């Protein structure tokens, strides 16, 4: 089942993002259940305030566990993650397998 993870970052912790970016990207690439990752930013700013992931997991608990094991979460960049079930429009469903 598809889930979307909506992350928020702790303000003022961009140094953690920079320090663990390579580990974070390697983690996302190593887990085939993580289908899409990307950061969010306030309009006109360069520093990320969170992220959006799309995951394909059997249940929400598995999606949450993957999110909470990410190096950004483990090392204190993330303030929170909200997991919601996700249903793409039929015209885009092929993008997720």
Low-pLDDT residue intervals, each spanning 5 or more residues: none
The helical percent reads 25-40%
Mean pLDDT equals: 96
Rg over CA atoms, rounded to whole Å, is 13 Å
Strand arrangement across the biggest beta sheet = 2-3-1-4
* H/E element sequence: EHEEHHE
* Percent of residues in beta strands: 25-35%
Q: How many strands? A: 4
Structural class: alpha+beta
Largest sheet: 4 strands, antiparallel
How many angstroms separate the termini? 11 Å
Task: Provide structural commentary.
The protein has 97 residues and is of the alpha+beta class. It has three helices and four strands. A four-stranded antiparallel β-sheet has the order 2-3-1-4. The model has no long low-confidence stretch (mean pLDDT 96).
Keyphrases for this structure?
97 residues, alpha+beta, four-stranded antiparallel beta sheet, 4 strands
Provide a compact summary of the structure.
31% of the residues lie in helices and 31% in strands. It is of the alpha+beta class and 97 residues long. The protein is globular, with a radius of gyration of 13 Å.
Reconstruct the topology from this structure.
Blueprint: E1 2-9, H1 14-30, E2 34-40, E3 50-56, H2 60-68, H3 71-74, E4 78-85
Antiparallel strand pairs: 1-3, 1-4, 2-3
